[in-house]
What we know:
The complex is a heterodimer.
Chain A: H1 7-16, H2 20-42, H3 53-66, H4 75-99, H5 123-138, H6 140-152, H7 156-163, H8 167-185
Chain B: H1 5-20, H2 23-34, H3 38-62, E1 89-90, E2 93-102, E3 105-112, E4 120-126, H4 133-147, E5 157-162, E6 168-173, E7 177-179, H5 180-186, H6 191-210, E8 223-226, E9 231-233, H7 238-242, H8 268-271, H9 278-294, H10 306-315, H11 329-335, H12 339-348, H13 360-371, H14 387-410, H15 412-431, H16 434-453, H17 458-478, H18 483-501, H19 511-531, H20 536-555, H21 559-577, H22 584-602, H23 612-632, H24 637-655, H25 659-674, H26 678-681, H27 684-703, H28 707-727, H29 732-753, H30 765-792, H31 797-817, H32 824-839, H33 845-857, H34 866-879, H35 885-897, H36 901-914, H37 926-935
Antiparallel strand pairs in B: 1-2, 2-3, 3-4, 4-6, 5-6, 7-8, 8-9
Helix pairs in contact in B: 1-2, 1-3, 2-3, 6-9, 6-13, 9-12, 10-14, 12-13, 14-15, 14-16, 15-16, 15-17, 15-18, 17-18, 18-19, 18-20, 19-20, 20-21, 21-22, 22-23, 22-24, 23-24, 24-25, 24-27, 25-27, 27-28, 28-29, 29-30, 30-31, 31-32, 31-33, 32-33, 33-34, 33-35, 34-35, 35-36, 35-37, 36-37
Amino acid sequence: MQAGEGEITLLLGKWRDGEPSAFEQLMPLVYPHLRQVAAAYIRRERNPDLLQGTALVHELYLRLLKQKKADWADRRHFYAFAAKIMRMILIDHARESQAQIRGGDRERIPLSDDLAWVNIDGPEILDLNRALDDLAAIDSEKVQLVELRYFLGCTAEETASLMGVSKATVDRDLKFIKSWLFRRIHPGMPGDPVGA
Amino acid sequence: MKQTTESFLRMQAIFHEALELPEDERAAFIDGRCLDDKELAAEVRLLIEASREEEEQSEAGRTGGSGGTGGASGAHSGSGADSGSAQRPIGPYRLDRLIGRGGMGAVYLAHRADGQFEQRVAIKLIDLPLATELFRERFRQERQILAGLQHPYIARMLDGGITADGDLYLAMEYVDGVPIHRFCEAHNLTLPERLALFLRVCEAVQYAHQNLVVHRDLKPDNIFVVEDGTPRLLDFGTAKLLSPSLGNPGSEMTREGYQSFTPQYASPEQVLGNPITTASDTYSLGVLLYVLVTGSLPYELKELTTAEMLRVICEEPPRRPSHEVGADRKLRAARKLDPDLDAILMKALRKEPLQRYLTAQQLAADVQAWLDHKPVAARRGTFRYRASKFVVRHRVGIAGATLLVVSLAAGIAGILWQSREANLQRRKAEARSADLRQLSKSLLSELDEAIKQLPGSTGVQKLLVTRVLEHLDRMAADAQGDRLTQIDLADAYTRLANIQGNPYDQNLGDPAGGLASDQKAIDLARSLVDENPRDRDALRALATAEDAESEILFGTARTQEAITAMQAATRDYDRLIETRDATPALICEVAAAYGTLGDEWGQTGTASLSNTAEGLRAYRKTIELDDRALSIDPNFLRARRGLALTQMKIGSEEMEADPGQALKDYQIAIEKADALPKDDKNSYQTMRMRTMIQRKKANAHVLMGQYAEAMPLFAQVVEFHRKMVAVDPQDLRALADLEVILDDEAVALETAADPALAAPGNDSKNERGRILSQACDTLREVVAIMDKMLRQDPTNENWRFVRASAQVRLATDESTLNQGQDTEPLARAGLAAFKEMAQSKDASAMVLESAATAFTTVQPASLRDPRFAVACAERAVDESHRQRPAVLLTLAQALNAAGQLEQARQVAKEALALLPPQQPGAARSNIRKQLEFEAQGGATVSGKAS
């Protein structure tokens, strides 16, 4: 169970190159922690001061650095990986809650304040998920941006630092992506020549 | 709406530029930039429209609106996002605000909302993703017990239940105070003042212990001090409530969960997942005292990995408090490096529960003595520090607990990941050294240990298995054509199968599920082998899976099928090791498979086919392979240990028909064990193996009628196991070991006292009476041990069987001695248990044989039931495939007692034919004497113990 020196660096590299086995090996590093975050989220106990995905990932990462299993240069990939797992967890949950229609009003919990029309267990998060899959075929970096910012809960500044761009660029990119995703999810808007 | 990256980027650029412009200029700008591409222009316009919509709806979402009209989210309405849980009614309470969050969930300040009375309470909402129905039921029961806990220093548990959403909650008295260490700092308490406060905490803990409630998570954050300077213990018993353990509700010992403690304050047994007693709270009180006295923790746990943390808690002695330079100068001056206070703290923090203060009261008494300048108990006498022993005996536990944290938390990912890791290590290993291979192999046992340590709840275990299985199935569907992943998957299925139902491992008792998982492993591996017969990795995976299949089948008594599966496994294994470069580790694995095959053919006391010849053949193959492994690496420990063990099995195989030969085998086995390297020889595991061989050797002497040789061996083995029990009287495994040897010793004494079997020179009536009364003493101890063990687990069939046998024999022996006791009730109790067990259609040959003997030989003779005995013995004979002379002897004796003399003679002759030819001049074994006696017509009654 112990990863050797630099092993995380190696695995992240393989993951980036699309090797599925690397994904499976990295998974246990972040999955349990993130599942806790997600569970709190889902139970509507979201309290950014107390529990945050980024903080946890940060802690995990520092530990790996300390153990020399990872390198500072891997930071971006590690966060990106964690964000992807977080997306998986939340989507899995949303699928489950969609499958079992619950009586009574559940409060809405927006995925992010900046993307507040997406409810974390509403049908729109599943739409969002599909739209992101489409987007991945066109521009996978943008998907990573969305995962970091909205699924893992990084601030715009953190996202910018991780992606190695300015905060202004992040804001600008997100503005476009949000519009694109919204349009993708709601194709029947008035004046649409293409239609659904 | 198919888009290319190029048009996407262009669209993005135009979008941003257009947004910079005033709204009324945008349309013209877009048309200009898009030139002839009308579609692109329309798309950008729509995107800008979408941008506005998106913002509106996001705004609506933030303020809790319905989410607009445009999209699917319109169907969703809510009561407001930022209100969070705050307005949610919880039972009769309404939450006011969040006041904290711990490992188990969030704590809220709340008030009663039903107007019955004004009361501020703390509500804990429990964060337990695996809360099963079973757990909920236990939760309901236990909170009743806790509600009864009323003490001025304990915050009361008021209520608890399940919210409309299905979450669990607890309502507790709200305590307006500060954690005890903060209080001490804030009020600048002197050392005596701190100790006085600590004594009150002890008082509250003692009260709870007297009510059989253990806190399990005592730490400053759970001990508040209110305005008037008195403490309030919070969260009493919630740790137990929150552990998904089934335990015995009436027992104070319950296996504990892992989530529900704080490592800094947790005792070694707690972090290892061993039974928790009040001594665990005493340990936590010790840590608290340490903190109050020195201002720091007894050890540093920050930034440690789980494994390191476990090591520190379980092995590292605490820092001597008097050497601890606390930040608090005032304390340092006041304490004056006091050795008595040191001794109190060191005793409270002992790693072994029994070396600590047994109760909070004893700890408090010593602290009080110190305050009164009296001698403290902690310094009276010195305690030999047994930490090394403790750690040796629990090392597997440490590894297991570490792994548990990973596998339970990571859930679905865990098992597959381990297989992958194992294979990764295997690949390295096969290229380099054999030792690494060994390591990966041990992962299996670690995982099993982890599963076993999953706090008692089969619900949780089953859930975990289901999750893993789902995950593996999904992976399998995706893994088409990916050879390495398929091999990993096959290994993972095999591991899972072992956890589900392999009787050779700790398992969940689900052999059917295990076989189903194993079949998947076999299918995956076989298809790869079919594709490429030279794929050695796949062949190994296949052999391993077949091996597991065989073991599981054997466990469900489908022995013939088990043998077929193991034969397939050994065929595949043989192909793997036919090359010259096979590693010792691999060869040993194959040797182990042959060992199991031997068990399946002939091992007594199991569902084997009782075919001694085939059993011996397989065991000899095991020895041959272990020898081959040793010829490559003479120091390969597993092979050397395997040799001793297999030699012992060979002896056991021969024991019944030819105890003289068995004696020789046991002698070789002991020599092999003694030849192990010193470190290994002194390990608990090896010492236990050696005493087991000695015990069997003693039994062989008894069967040869050589009682004088047997008795000193029994005495040595008994002494070893008594020592082990003394180390930890709660350790049931040690008790079981002691019970087995005492029981064997009693049988030996009974045999020596049997007029037909007594040794020449010791066969006077007086001498036999003396020996029989020794047997009675031994049996009384066996019964007492079994009573104790059965109190822990009343349903254990094997233990019930041992007790019943000991009861009947004790009653019979006492009745034979005729010293005036009324032995009938004891005999009746044993017979009743036998009857019930023997009437079950699953009764084993061992139970049936013992029942037959009991009903044939019991005293007073009025309790005998020869016809029932014959029925039992016949079933036992069938179960052992008419291959075991001892079982046939029992049948002959029962037939004789039932008056079926001719049949008895026939059966005895049949059994005699199974014995090896008697060598002229060699001693006759007891069984031969008894069978010849029965074959010649016997007396009216003859019994082993009469």
